[in-house]
Write a structure and sequence with these properties.
This protein is mainly α and about 260 residues long. It is built from 9 helices and 2 strands; from the N terminus they run H-H-E-E-H-H-H-H-H-H-H. It folds into 2 domains: about 90 residues; about 140 residues, Tetratricopeptide repeat domain (Serine Threonine Protein Phosphatase 5, Tetratricopeptide repeat, Alpha Horseshoe), CATH 1.25.40.10. A hairpin with a 2-residue loop joins strand 1 and strand 2. The longest helix has about 90 residues.
Length: about 260
Amino acid sequence: MEFNAVKLSRLVAISLLLSLGAASAGAGLFEDDEARNAILDLRKRVDTVRVDSEQNASRTIEDTALLRRSLLELQNQIEVLRSDISKIRGVNEQLSRDVAEIQRQQKDTAQGLDDRIRQFEPIKITVDGREFLVQPKEKRDYEDALGIFRKGDFSASQTVFLDFIKRYPQSGYVLSALFWLANAQYATRDYKEAMINFRALVARGPDHMRAPEAVLSIANCQVELKDTRSARKTLEELVKAYPQTEAAVAAKERLARLK
């Protein structure tokens, strides 16, 4: 715009010179006052054009400066928005990580709760041909007692089996516990107590898988106590009650030796 104003001023000046030249050439035709008035009028018009040009140029400069300030402010706002968006993304990423961690903790907690619940839920097991439900602790206690017996510590196993029977009188393990308790007593030569527990097993579970062995063991206790007559009677009852068992086969052999 500054270039246009200068160019316009030059054009106005050229027009003025041409007008002056024309006025001089035609001096004979016009009076001096008329020529002077024409020049003054032309100068006014030139001044008016120049002032208008300067004002337009000034407004243009102001508009340009205002536009630049507006663009700068807009750029600053854009940078602020970018910064805010970056922060929001960072917050979202952190929230995503927090949610994932919470979900993992919830899963671990649920798994831990399930594990703890299972520690108290009954377990279905099969022992000596019988299937029944037991509590987890009940199962551990029985297996611990049997482990002591299998290690050959018969005195200690008597204590733990007696304790087990007292604590779990209705347990599906009781008949098996009686069998191993009586065997531990037999191993320590406590034949009378062994017979009591073998008989308790047979009385409570005559169809139990261990019942034929228990009857045979009763006869063995009687033999150890020198009660041959009772032993023969027990063996005969065994052969009659459980004819198809291995214990019945052993009983027949012992009866033959007792003769």
